[in-house]
Amino acid sequence: MKMESLRSIELFRDLCEGELQDVRAVATKREYGRGEYIFMEGETREAVFFVQRGLIKIFKVDPEGREHIVNALGTGQMFPHMGFFNHAPYPGTAEVLSPTTLWLIGTNKFEELLTSHPALVRKMIAIMGQKISQLQAKLQELALFDAHERVAALVRHFGEEHGVVAQDGIHIHLPITHGEMGRMIGMSRESVSRIWNEFRREGILTGDKDDWILDKGWFERGT
């Protein structure tokens, strides 16, 4: 069962049994509750984390004390993505948004895995390329999109990262507030709420507070 739960992690999905055994030998499993901090921005980097289940938000705090959410990470994803082999401090703070199970691997052990397993290096390069593309897209959205388009882009991002396709739409379980969404895209909570309610009136979004159903036709059109 432990081996199968590791295989649910994107980075380890295509490893052979022997490679997966090497990962399991250095991985430790931990449980976290909502509101707990996994690490704080500026702390010494000690481990790389992989989400088996749950939701993590990564954020930075500016000199005025304002929180800026960088990402929300769910099942199968790893963090942080940067800083391997240079032991830089954690670039942001990781806070748990829902009950979460993580695998963690010490930084030195993870670097040893990368140097001894070419398959992991190739997968890491692919993941890093994907993250760079997502960052470029986000910067473009912040620079060029109006408020309505920013929220629409964020909803599509949630669908891509956290959605499960079903017959009645794309189901997204994501306990994140409108204020937190606003801090991801440079908007106020009130503006996000207004546009969110527009989407609900138009039938683009249905469901409860933390469990949304996204219209598949709208999502696939990308509009």
Fold and architecture overview:
This protein has eight helices and ten strands. With 223 residues, it is of the alpha+beta class. The strands form two sheets. Strands 1, 2, 3, 4, 5 and 6 form a six-stranded antiparallel sheet that branches. Strands 7-8-10-9 form a four-stranded antiparallel sheet. The longest helix is centred in the middle third of the chain and has 27 residues, at 118-144. The chain is globular, with a radius of gyration of 18 Å. It starts with a helix and ends with a helix. The mean pLDDT is 85.
- Compute the CA-based radius of gyration: 18 Å
How many strands in all? Answer: 10
User: How many helices?
Assistant: 8
- Overall structural class, as computed from helix and strand content, comes to alpha+beta
How confident is the prediction overall: mean pLDDT? Answer: 85
As a percent range, the share of helical residues equals: 40-55%
State the major sheet.
6 strands, antiparallel
Strand content: 25-35%
Overall geometric form? globular
Q: H/E series, N to C?
A: HHEEEEEEHHHEEHHEEH
Low-confidence blocks of residues: none
Distance between the termini: 41 Å
